[in-house]
Design goal:
Structural class: alpha+beta
Strand content: 15-25%
Shape: elongated
CATH superfamily of one domain: Immunoglobulins
Number of helices: 20
Distance between the termini: 136 Å
CATH architecture of one domain: Sandwich
CATH class of one domain: Mainly Beta
Oligomer: single chain
CATH topology of one domain: Immunoglobulin-like
């Protein structure tokens, strides 16, 4: 019998240099294959293969970098936590790699670690002073701080602390950093966009326009792909620049230039973005909105045309200033209140919605977050609050989550709850716009009269209106007269406020000549043949030098005098009537000159002249007419009298 022996065999595997090279080669091959298949792989599978690469070769810096970027793309807290060690490992392997530093800085920024991100950007500046991106990102931090602190106050028992000086210093640093980024590479259009926004806050609108125009000119001169792909992570579109340019020109009171910029922007942007700017969804009342949204596209477009035409403050200009302001508000809301990384547009935010409806507040203040105590002794965090003051109401916001995203303040008190205040306000006043170029508006008291026109298919409209000479800007004066330069317009519009008849004239008037009554009112007159029907009327006057304007609008029914039945024209109450002569040609009515009373009030000791025309009187056999006229004059009922109360109750 042969005994069987069991001999244990021990194998010792040692990986020498050749084996290590094999693993590195396998890692490189797997990395190349993984990156090549990036678009076809689901993100978890992509991450899994990158992890295999890092297990094969723990010194492959590119693999750790790609793994960190992939974790970041998960857009979760867990993903960012896993991304951090991967990117830090990549940098330990290649500490001078600018791309790695940039990825780590972006991760810190997305994680709201501003200080750590700024530190990485400063390292990039030292490694590559010619790279414009770190200057741009550091400027963003300074700009954000400037916006946060410029209106902030800290309330204490015996004092109020303001942070204006800190905001001014942040502004100067941000401006210098943006300027440096643009100087290093003018095609970093995001820097021009942000610098222009910075200048807006300082009301340096001319510099804002110049920065944007230079960027637009450069953008337009480059091939589309080159303009868009130079900095894929810092995309600023051409229409973004043009929208902000429109805002700049609007603030410079250059409506034609603003209209041109906005039109160019709309030509560049996608249809769905363009529709937002014309939509009424952001300005209608809660009662009107469902009807508008339920309509088909054609009906909505008609509603939009009617709405914006009716709110054009001055038909005499080529642009619709109300629309320009609306476009400007949306452009600013998207600049300041949006969160692009979260795909939240600025116009959708609470502050954006308020701005679009009511415009910029007259005043704005922000309180600093601090600690407080409840009645039971518990420590609480008092969120930073922001107050927008509009004069007759105010809006309240708060930074509940300490991320500088101010939303409507929440309160059990309806008068302190921001959302409740907003909803209550838009029911009474859905939107607001004041158009006051040059200051106070001109008043245009007026009288509209209708007479038979020579043409049977039209009626002669005669509109008398007055201008207070004491409120007008003199262009020159002599011993006897003061001279004024004006432009005036007459617009007869359809039901959609689309002008059907438009008249414009330049006027040089003088105080003291015939046509000025004793109260110092310059009288003007329009005589226009107009079609019969119901129309909207706009009467407009603009001072040439100051730009001040006066506008009167109303709906009128123009009667027909074409029939053969007995008819009577409108009645003109006049303060002065004289035989016709050339000095008063503007006020000539047949054989007389009429200076009408615009207030239609007369004293007991003053003369009252009444002018009207009668049409289609029957003639007798001798060709003459026979008729009787009766006039009744009664005093105006005093306010509060029994007659006044009775009339108001009817």
């Amino acid at each position: 019998m042969i005994p069987l022996l069991t001999i244990p065999l021990f194998f010792v595997f040692s990986f020498g240099k050749g084996d290590s090279l094999d693993r590195e080669l396998q890692a490189q091959q797997l990395l190349r294959a993984t990156l090549s298949a990036r678009d076809s792989l689901a993100l978890p599978e992509f991450i899994k293969q990158l992890e295999q690469v890092t297990h094969l070769d723990k010194k492959n810096a590119d693999a750790f970098h790609e793994l960190g970027l992939a974790y970041t793309r998960l857009e979760t807290v867990w993903g960012r936590e896993r991304a951090l060690p991967a990117l830090e490992r990549a940098l330990r392997l290649q500490p001078r790699n600018v791309a790695f530093h940039y990825s780590l800085a972006e991760l810190h920024r997305k994680s709201s670690f501003g200080g750590a991100a700024a530190g990485e950007f400063k390292k990039i500046m030292r490694l590559d002073p010619s790279d414009p991106r770190p200057y741009y990102h550091l400027a963003l931090f300074q700009e954000e701080d400037m916006l946060h602190y410029r209106e902030m106050v800290s309330l204490h028992e015996n004092a109020t602390i303001f942070f204006t000086e800190f905001a001014e210093e942040d502004f100067r640093e941000a401006e210098e950093l943006y300027r440096t980024a643009i100087a290093l590479d003018p095609t970093l259009f995001a820097a021009s966009y942000r610098l222009a926004g910075l200048y807006y806050e300082a009301q340096r609108f001319q510099e804002m326009a110049e920065v944007l125009q230079a960027a637009i000119n450069l953008y337009s001169s480059r091939p589309t792909a080159a303009a868009q792909n130079a900095y894929p992570l810092l995309q600023t579109t051409l229409f973004d620049l043009q929208l902000l340019l429109g805002l700049a020109h609007t603030r410079l009171q250059q409506p034609e230039a603003a209209q041109h910029a906005f039109t160019n922007a709309f030509a560049e942007m996608p249809k769905e973005d363009r529709q937002l700017f014309f939509s009424l969804a952001t300005v209608l009342s809660p009662d009107e909105l469902p009807v508008y949204l339920a309509a088909d596209e054609a009906a909505r477009q008609l509603d939009e045309q009617r709405y914006w035409n009716a709110r054009d403050p001055l038909f005499m200009t080529a642009a619709n200033e109300r629309m320009l302001e609306h476009f400007s508000r949306i452009a600013y809301a998207n600049l300041r209140f949006g969160f692009p990384e979260k795909k939240i547009a600025g116009w959708k935010t609470d502050r954006g919605q308020t701005l679009i409806r009511f415009g910029f507040p007259k005043g704005r203040v922000r309180t600093r977050a601090d600690l407080g105590t409840t009645p039971t002794g518990h420590v609480t965090l008092n969120a930073s609050k922001e107050v927008w003051e509009y004069g007759d109401f105010r809006m309240l916001y708060e930074d509940r989550f300490l991320n500088r995203n101010y939303a409507f303040a929440w309160s059990l008190d309806p008068n302190s709850d921001g959302k409740n205040i907003f909803e209550r306000q838009i029911r009474s006043t859905p939107e607001r716009f004041e158009f006051l170029p040059g200051g106070k508006r001109l008043q245009l008291p007026h009288v509209i009269a209708q007479f038979r026109a020579p043409q049977s298919d039209s009626t002669l409209l005669e509109i008398y209106y007055g201008l207070d000479a004491h409120e007008l800007e003199e262009v020159r004066s002599t011993d006897a007269q003061k001279h004024f330069q004006l432009e005036r317009g007459f617009f007869l519009c359809d039901q959609n406020w689309q002008p059907l008849l438009a008249r414009r004239e330049r006027r040089d008037l003088a105080f003291g000549e015939n046509g000025v009554n004793k109260s110092g009112v310059l009288l003007e007159r329009w005589v226009v043949p107009a079609p019969v029907g119901e129309f909207n009327l706009s009467l407009e006057t603009v001072e040439r030098n100051s730009g001040r304007s006066g506008v009167e609008r109303e709906t009128i029914t123009i009667e027909s005098f074409a029939g053969e039945h007995l008819q009577m024209s409108s009645v003109i109450l006049a303060a002065q009537v004289a035989a016709a002569h050339d000095d008063l040609i503007l006020y000539k009515k047949g054989e007389v000159n009429i200076i009408p009373s615009l207030q239609r009030k007369f004293g007991a000791d003053s003369s009252l002249y009444v002018y009207y025309e009668i049409y289609n009187l029957a003639r007798g056999q001798n060709g003459q007419t026979s008729f009787r006229v009766e006039n009744t004059i009664t005093p105006i009922a005093a306010p509060g009298s029994d007659l006044s109360i009775a009339l108001n109750a009817i």
